[in-house]
Amino acid sequence: MENLDNTIGKPQSFYDTFERKPGKDKQIVHYCPGCGHGRIHKLIAEALDSLEMADETVFVSPVGCSVFGYYYFDTGNIQAAHGRAPAVGTGVARANKKGYVISYQGDGDLAAIGTAEIIHAANRGENMTVIFVNNGIYGMTGGQMAPTSLEGQKTATSPYGRDIADMGAPIRMSEIIAKLDAPVYVERVSVSDFKNINKAKKAIHTALKAQKDRKGFTFVEVLSACPEGWKLSPVDAIKRLQDVMETYYPLGQYKNELETRPTKAEPLPRPSDKDIMTALGVGDKAAIINVTDTFVKNFKEQRVRISGFGGQGVLLAGTTLGNLAMHHELAVTWLPSYGPEMRGGTANCHVMINNSVVGTPVVDKPNVLIAMNGPSLDEFENTVEAGGTIFVNSSIVDKKVKRTDVKAVYVPMTNIAEDAGIKKAANMVAVAAYLSYSKAMDLNSLIDLLKVNFKKKELVDANIKVIHAAKEYVEKNCM
Ligand SMILES: Cc1ncc(C[n+]2csc(CCOP(=O)(O)OP(=O)(O)O)c2C)c(N)n1
Ligand code: SF4
């Protein structure tokens, strides 16, 4: 059994100095007098010491008074957006199976904006420990009502007291989490007095040890005072913690299956790129194209926005381009944009193609715009980067591109598709026109790709016809 008797002195898992603000006292903490956060930090650091876990632990602190966790814990630290620590922690736990994760969250964070994240991380049984600091109020932002604020509690947003008929009853999170199948250990503790602090210390230690033993999801709720938010002196706040909070939120273990649960099973291994491509029906990329390193190295980023009305196949045009990029060993993202569009408005997608990594999937400044109808040109013309290219479906767009600092390529996409006997393939004309004009990727590979993608031979033949017709038109009229 690890040594639990390490309460004297500063835990090793804390930094030597707390540099909250450069130039200020290097030992000062940012918590108010009588706040529970500092005490809970110490219990966690002591447990990390005795279990020798600090070097392998990532501490995820989200939004709330715990936001500055990274000034205290000499562990890995990640700052998560409000309520999202269990989702960030999931990523860390899955990417680093040898490491440990502590998600440290307040009640506003975990039980309000982050309810979905905590429920699903718990339900999946992620191998992480959640320390849930329940002080029954939003401390950091000046004392608004939290889902855990008690009946009748006056807060900045419930000045007449929490009315259950209007605002619902305070949520008991430990009871909810314990009801899920996956969590192995759930306990509610308090940091109100020595006896309870010792129990809290033991609970945190047990939860972290369970994580070390790869047992799965553990959850410790710690009732804690917020003298500032409660508008009480530190002494009165502790009294309220004991008399009021501990009454509504009974302390104790809600779940402990540590003895009976085996080590958590690993999820199935992730499929390889090749498996994914086979599953998507786009074939083995090596079988389709051999790209040279120079091609990939010299590839110029393509930020493509394809827009039209519903039914024109703009989303499929985007995935076709994306698949082609994957076959060229390029990095690619495809992002459909489903706005609350009106009939006759625009449906569009973003395709980002680069040679190494894609920074963001959002194409807000395209260097290629494919406008398949009039509203698309109206909406996106001004977003195109100077020097970029706009491909216009001149079959149905009768206006011209107003900008003089971009290239405009007019292609009667719908007519070309109709003439080739497959009206619906205007989207394929758009893709082929773009490739013929820009030479960004190999047009013949698009044909190879179709042969793999389309099961029906007549569809393949018709689309090949469309592609040739588009190429011919562009070479004759647009170059
Ligand atoms: C997305 C988002 N919404 C709102 C806020 C503002 N905000 C900062 S802290 C906080 C409340 C945190 O309360 P709690 O989780 O109870 O932690 P405590 O401060 O009491 O420890 C809120 C709403 C924010 N930072 N981000
Ligand atoms: S506002 Fe409340 S939770 Fe935040 S530091 Fe002060 S006492 Fe602690």
* Shape annotation: elongated
Q: In DSSP terms, counting alpha (H) and pi (I) runs of 4 or more, how many helices?
A: 18
Give the name of the CATH architecture of the largest domain: 3-Layer(aba) Sandwich
Distance between the termini: 77 Å
Structural class: alpha/beta
Flag low-confidence runs: none
Hetero groups in this structure are: thiamine diphosphate, iron/sulfur cluster
Descriptive report:
The chain is elongated. The chain is about 40% helix and about 15% strand. The strands form two sheets. Strands 2-1-3-4-6-5-7 form a seven-stranded mixed beta sheet, with helices on both faces. The chain is α/β, with parallel strands linked by helices. It has two domains: about 35-255, 3-Layer(aba) Sandwich (Rossmann fold), CATH 3.40.50; about 275-475, Pyruvate-ferredoxin oxidoreductase, PFOR, domain III (Pyruvate-ferredoxin Oxidoreductase, domain 3, 3-Layer(aba) Sandwich). Helix 7 (about 195-210) links the parallel strand 5 and strand 6. The structure holds thiamine diphosphate (TPP) and iron/sulfur cluster (SF4). Thiamine diphosphate binds next to helix 3. Thiamine diphosphate binds near residues 82, 106, 138 and 139.
